[in-house]
Design a protein that fits this description.
Elements (H helix, E strand, L loop, with lengths): L1 H16 L1 E2 L2 E2 L26 H13 L8 H24 L9 H10 L8
Antiparallel strand pairs: 1-2
Helix pairs in contact: 2-3
Length: 122
């Protein structure tokens, strides 16, 4: 049933793109080619890290009226967690690996500039 729906959809699209009375029904307002650059957007941040250590630290502060000296173990564990997380993020950024196997916008732009669209047919 799903395959039949896909075929019907493809037939409808081809009918709309075909020429009727000398003119196509759907006319694109731009050329159907890729640009040679990508918008430079920052990737979304991942999950928050060190949440458990932070909550343990907050609970310790609450119990001890926000005295840092009594919560030194919790503070130390939180800072070590933060340092480990920053080190792994730095390693991932140096390797150029982004979650989902996607290219960064800078990498995509360099590839698109290296292999631009052909403006005329061969």
């Amino acid at each position: 049933m799903a395959a039949q729906g896909g075929v019907l959809f493809q037939e409808k699209v081809s009918r709309l793109l075909s020429k009727q009375n000398g003119k196509p029904v759907l006319k694109p307002n731009r050329r159907l080619v890729l640009k040679d650059s990508v918008a430079n957007r920052k990737p979304k941040k991942g999950e928050a890290s060190c949440i458990t250590e932070m909550s343990v630290l907050m609970a310790c502060w609450k119990q001890n009226n926000f005295v840092d000296g009594l919560c030194s173990n919790e503070i130390h564990s939180f800072y070590t967690c933060v340092q480990k997380t920053q080190a792994t993020m730095k390693n991932m950024s140096e390797q150029g690996v982004i979650a989902g196997g996607r290219l960064s916008p800078k990498q995509a732009t360099t590839l698109l500039r290296r292999f631009p669209n052909l403006l005329s047919e061969i």
